[in-house]
Design a protein that fits this description.
With 80 residues, the protein is of the alpha+beta class. It has one domain (2-74). It has one helix at 61-74, and strands spanning 2-5, 8-17, 22-31, 34-44, 49-54. A 5-stranded antiparallel β-sheet has the order 1-2-3-4-5, covered by helices on one side. Strand 3 and strand 4 form a beta hairpin. The longest helix is centred in the last third of the chain and has 14 residues, at 61-74. The radius of gyration is 13 Å and the shape is elongated.
């Protein structure tokens, strides 16, 4: 995902986390070359549980909607 709004470039990063035993999607905001983590969707392989967490309260709704849709496509929702 790549959106630009409110002077911020929003990007999604995905990857696996060996320490937490799972897979994540992170929503980051890039402003003036600085990157800030805003939210994360995480699937835990051990518990087969998906979670969402946000690190701030002022994320535009459309950005969250796009992030959740993309995370739903890219982060597993059950153990395979």
């Amino acid at each position: 995902m790549l959106l630009t709004t409110h002077n911020c470039e929003y990007r999604t990063t995905v990857g696996s986390d060996v320490v937490r035993d799972g897979f994540f999607a992170e929503l980051v905001c890039i402003t003036n070359g600085e990157q800030r983590l805003l939210a994360e969707a995480f699937f835990n392989d051990g518990t087969s549980q998906s979670t969402f967490s946000a690190n701030c309260k002022d994320i535009p709704f459309e950005t969250i909607r796009h992030f959740v849709e993309e995370a739903g496509r890219r982060v597993p929702s059950k153990a395979e």
